[in-house]
Amino acid sequence: MTTSQPPQPPPKVTREQCKHPQVQIVSRDEDAEYVECKECGDVFESSELKDMALEENKAPDEEV
Q: CB-based burial of residue 34 (10 Å sphere; 0-12 exposed, 13-18 middle, 19+ buried)?
């Protein structure tokens, strides 16, 4: 009898590499909304997601 490996889940994307393409709302506060990335599991304020998108679109010459 041979033993077989159980199916392995796809490798998780590291938080440094993930661009958070899919998020879901996990909590709302009076002042903030918190989301969780479905890819890497990182939880952050939704306003941070907008900031990340702005930084990503920033041209290399514009860095301070």
A: middle
Where are any strands of DSSP class E within 1-64? 23-28, 33-37, 43-45
DSSP, collapsed to helix, strand or coil, labels residue 23 as strand
**For the segment 10-64, what is each residue's pLDDT rounded down to a tens digit?**
555 565 678 888 999 999 989 999 999 998 999 999 888 777 777 777 756 655 5
Q: How far apart are CA 28 and CA 56, in angstroms?
A: 26
Dihedral pair phi/psi, residue 17, rounded to 5°: -90, -25
Dihedral sign (CA 54, 55, 60, 64)? positive
What is the distance between the alpha carbons of residues 52 and 17, in angstroms, rounded to a whole number? 12
Query: pTM score > 0.70 for this model?
Result: no
